[in-house]
Design a protein that fits this description.
3 domains; Immunoglobulin-like; single chain; 7-stranded antiparallel beta sheet; 4-stranded antiparallel beta sheet; 6 helices; alpha+beta; about 20% helix
């Protein structure tokens, strides 16, 4: 009788346990018709943070987990818009017949093309290999979802100069200059005389210059970036960056040489925790 009782209890415990969810790579899940997916641009994010949104639906009657691997490429359906690459692996748990909409950490792999927008659509591409795969894993490891990480990607995909891998976090910039030099087997760039911060965070007036102020108020400590973007929505200069900006009102002054930038208009954008909150159009007057 005791043996039967023990057996009954064991069976009850096992039958009450939660079913194990199967995990599938995104490509496998699509090929097996387990999910329906749409991929579109995210205009609320700059091209180096979360410029891609996945809209995914579980077509099965079981709970499943979808893995989107680091290094997965997404190919745009537009000939003048950037392709993207995942810079952080994502696991998306889907209940039966349920949908999830989620932004994905990714970066542009075509510097010379325009950033994606809300009307941009993508299809699944191939997985990165070689140096590009190593780099996107390094970006995930160091959480460098910023211009330094983006410039490093372009150093592989677009022959971007290692001298230009720079930013407000000098330690992070030095790491990636050295990392990329080792990865590409080229010399480490020589140090510039003027620091990245001082070069543009100044009140110096040039012969032809852009001068202005940027005032903002935040309620909580936030990751703040102020960037100068061109008409293709590509950042051409990070004017300010503070990943731990304290709550309160802040005023940022900027002035820089207009001859460096020749486009008819630019946008200065306030980015809070990866989302574009303010976008101011500038049309510089030229003599």
């Amino acid at each position: 009788m005791k043996k039967l009782l023990v057996l009954f209890i064991t069976i009850t415990i096992l039958s009450g346990s939660k079913p194990i969810s199967n995990t599938y790579n995104l490509k496998t899940a699509i090929d097996k018709n387990l999910v329906a997916c749409k991929f579109r641009g995210n205009f609320e994010s700059p091209h180096y943070y979360q410029p891609l949104i996945i809209d995914i639906t579980n077509l099965t009657n079981k709970e499943i987990i979808i893995r989107i691997p680091n290094g997965q490429k997404f190919i745009t359906d537009s000939t003048d818009t950037q392709d993207l690459i995942i810079t952080q692996e994502e696991l998306i748990a889907l209940s039966p017949k349920k949908k999830e909409v989620k932004p994905l950490f990714s970066m542009c792999i075509q510097e010379y093309k325009s950033a994606s927008h809300e009307g941009t659509t993508f299809k699944l591409g191939t997985l990165a290999t070689g140096n590009l795969s190593k780099l996107t894993k390094e970006i995930e490891k160091t959480k460098s979802f910023n211009t330094i990480g983006q410039y490093s990607v372009w150093a592989i995909t677009d022959d971007f100069s290692l001298d230009e891998i720079d930013g407000f976090n000098e330690k992070e910039a030095n790491h990636y200059q050295n990392y990329m030099a080792t990865l590409l087997n080229v010399p480490v760039p020589s140090k510039q005389k003027n620091s990245y911060k001082d070069y543009y965070e100044t009140t110096k007036i040039y012969k032809s210059s852009i001068v202005g102020k940027f005032k903002y108020n935040i309620h909580d400590q936030s990751n703040i970036t102020i960037g100068l973007f061109n008409e293709q929505n590509i950042i051409v200069r990070e004017l300010y960056n503070n990943p731990t900006q304290k709550a309160g009102e802040h005023l940022f002054n900027y002035a820089f040489d207009l001859t460096t930038y020749q486009d008819p208009r630019y946008y200065i954008r306030l980015i809070i925790d990866g989302n574009i909150q303010v976008s101011l159009k500038m049309e510089p007057r030229r003599s």
